[in-house]
DNA sequence: GTCTATAGACCGATAGAC
DNA sequence: GTCTATCGGTCTATAGAC
């Protein structure tokens, strides 16, 4: 279960931190646990990363840079092929993170992403928004081109819904369980296919009618 | 910012815990912070709740019982009116939590739900599944009746996606910001309307075609 | 770069007086 | 039911030897 010893101290710390953060969250994981699993001295983490917060950021950077590049590359390929191919755009958004989930080395990371969204007030969220917000904005632009009739508010809402569904599916929450005969890889492909189908239909839905500001949800208690 | 002093010690602890858990997570919040904000003695939390874990459970129970009852009541009303009214079923699922988000007293709680889904390995998840899992199963049954053509796997996937989108929207992650002129209540109604429209279209999408197990997502590195 | 040792603070939980 | 005081343990971070 421990990180392989042929990697550098720094790499071993990153790997151990990724697994533990995925299992227990950031606040719920101590540096002592991390260094114990990585089989390095407790002082090494401060030598290599300076602080726990910076270690968290570096755990993200190691995977996110690659994942964002894969998403944008797939997006540009899909748009060059056919700018109105909504399914192609969605596949570019959805498949790279789910492909990462197949790897043993990346499966912990996708659960970390879900945790990051729940840890709302951290510097981590600013770090993610600053460093990777442009990816989401580029997808929003491509979808606006593919669906020119789509209302701007609906576009943003629905892109958020898609991201939420993806995050949720990646973290394998929920009631859908992998069938016994189906491999992990096949399960992820099923998820990607199902989500592309679901999100494409949702994005193509008729414009949402806004209710009168006076009425609507009943406020209770 | 502190809880009003006319409430009992127990209520004040619950209220303070709810706000802090929403902001900082469960592991990230200490009982000392909770009792400081509630303006009660540190020993009171163990007297009234026994342990931190049990306090977490009670924070949930206080809101979840009511929310689940509202969801099921709305579901039964919608199904009695028209068993094929998918939008009505979805409204029964989506509106009670978003209505809770409007209340000042409940807005922290909806963010806690998102945290609960991210805190994967706790007893909390078992607690939620044991106590409230039947609600989700009842919605699955109603949707299966409303959409008899819908494939069983697709139903479960798409219900998960809807729950993920709802969780994400409630916690106001994502890029959709409330417009300056729009009230919090109107914003929540917008979210509910947009999500019902999105999820209904997604659920009505054609059956997802499963790929051949041999091909699919490229496994990388 | 890696170690030991420790500072300085905070944690959850409890005992026991009132 | 509420308080003070405290136990035994944890934590992040750092100083300084090697």
Automatic annotation (TrEMBL), chains A, B:
InterPro entries: DNA-bd_HTH_TetR-type_CS, Homeodomain-like_sf, HTH-type_TetR-like_transc_reg, HTH_TetR, PsrA_TetR_C, Tet_transcr_reg_TetR-rel_C_sf. Keywords: DNA-binding. The keyword DNA-binding applies. Pfam families: TetR_C_30, TetR_N. Residues 30-49 bind DNA. Residues 7-67 form the HTH tetR-type domain. This is TetR/AcrR family transcriptional regulator. It comes from Coralloluteibacterium thermophilum.
């Amino acid at each position: 279960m421990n990180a392989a010893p042929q990697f550098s101290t720094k790499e071993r710390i990153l790997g151990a931190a990724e697994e533990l953060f995925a299992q227990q969250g950031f606040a719920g994981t101590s540096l002592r646990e991390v260094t114990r699993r990585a089989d390095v001295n407790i002082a090494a983490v401060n030598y290599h990363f300076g602080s726990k917060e910076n270690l968290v950021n570096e755990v993200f950077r190691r995977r996110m840079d690659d994942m964002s590049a894969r998403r944008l590359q797939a997006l540009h390929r899909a748009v060059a092929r056919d700018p109105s191919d909504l399914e192609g755009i969605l596949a570019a958004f959805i498949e790279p993170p789910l492909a990462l989930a197949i790897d043993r080395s990346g499966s912990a990371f996708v659960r970390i992403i879900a945790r990051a969204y729940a840890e709302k007030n951290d510097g981590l969220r600013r770090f993610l928004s600053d460093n990777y917000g442009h990816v989401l904005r580029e997808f929003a632009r491509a979808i606006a081109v593919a669906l020119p009739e789509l209302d701007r508010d609906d576009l943003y809402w629905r892109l958020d819904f898609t991201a939420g569904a993806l995050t949720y599916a990646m973290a394998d929450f929920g009631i859908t369980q992998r069938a016994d005969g189906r491999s992990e890889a096949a399960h992820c492909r099923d998820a990607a296919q199902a989500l592309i189908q679901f999100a494409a239909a949702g994005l193509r839905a008729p414009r949402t009618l806004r209710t009168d500001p006076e009425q609507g949800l009943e406020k209770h208690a």
